[in-house]
Structure prediction request, 506 residues.
Amino acid sequence: MKKYLYVLLLLLGVSAGMVSCIHDDTTGFVKEISDITITKVWGEGVDEDGKFAVAELKMPVRIEAEAEQTLEGYELSYEWKAGFINGYKDGEPVLESLFLISDSTVVEYSFDRVGEFLLRLRVSNEFGSTFHYITVEIKAGMERGLLVLSSDDAGKGSLAFCSVDRNANELLQAKVEDFERNVWLKVNPDYELADVRDMVVMDYGDSKNSVFVLSESQQAMYELEQNSLLVLRKIDLSFIIKDIKPVAIVPCWQYMAVMTDAGQVMCADLANFGIINETWGTEMKGEKCYRGVYKDDWNGGNVSIPIVADNENEKLIGYVNTNNNITDSESDFQGRRIVNFTLVGPTNNRNLLVVSEPKNNSDKVWVTTYKSITNFLDNRFDVFSKGDGYQEREYSLAAPLALDSNSEMIYNGNYNVIFYNNGSMIYRWRYTSDFSQSSQVSLPRGEITCMAESPDGEYLYVGAYDEAAAGLKGSIYIYSTKDLRLVNSFVGVTDKPVKLFYKDKN
Prediction:
């Protein structure tokens, strides 16, 4: 009995000892944690809170950080990671995968993509980590402004750009030195650009807002990112036709119409490695491929279709969708030569205006206006409708017609007039009247090579080439569409302009 009592007392003693250990106030086995605080994040373009920064594309971003901890003697490690922000959901950024850009207190990195990145700074010691987040907006400096495609005497192509911060009217106060003379070389040094013929902005489909540049000798289209003008891809147009010589491009829904120097018009599938459907216009001899832009009430926004002048067959042809469906003017221009054509009227009610003349003489001219009809259920336009609104007017000419097939015709809805060019002259024609009533103005120097309108329709951008000039031979002039008054000029800022337009941020 005493033996059992002894064992029981021994167990109780051990238990009491364990309890006393649990409640022991000594700290001999406890290690104090060194907490980390990120105290400061700074750098050029970084806001006061260190949570937002702005930087330029392909230019080094330098951001520094300071951190402190509650105890001395522990090593701190730094890790900077970045991820592109694809969008936001419930107010939180949706990121592509994070990648490491620095493992020191300083990050110095050049971003090659326009948009927003999230930078995550992680500072760690042996006890744990703390984080700091910075949103970095990467700008290309080419989001908004006047874009000019040009070619030098040897056929080398280039892009010039005059950037603005908010809107196109800032171009009225811009100076020659504001032009970036060779954007292509700056952002796409690995791509040669030669024998440029055309440039457009896509208005529909997966490539919407991309800029496309056409090279004849390279038999290719370059697709450029909309805000940075970086090459996204080079589309080989010789994939189907080996000896193709492309001279013009026009968007057609989500595809691209390509016109060759032989007058053929084919459809390039932008989503399928650039494969061409060459069945569109292999039998035609097109002389001019025009971009008809209509308002798409069914899908929203605008949609483009190509309209082609085929004087050999005495007709105009409209490629109304990508299913080989075409519409044409039939015999409306039999015995005539189509001089030029454009769309007139508001965007949601565009009508085709055609200027034609007799094939055997040039003493009179016809101005034909079709009433276009749209059917968005089958993506079809009837651009040659003779319904209400169709009319044809005949005029006698006292002097040779200044308008020709090389003239650019630009309809201005603010003043209901058409601007066109010939040589060094700009003509402002109220198209409901005789050509003899057109007003005109001559450029200070050079011949006009291309024209475009400002977004608000108040100004005309004119590209000119002066063969006798020293250095760069291309200039840009800005005229008021109200009275053809010269409001600004940029002399010698580019090579020979091929195409120009105002490009907005998208």
The first strand starts at residue 36 and ends at 43. Residues 1-12, 14-24 have pLDDT under 50 and may be disordered. The two ends are 95 Å apart (CA to CA). Residues 2-22 form the longest helix (21 residues).
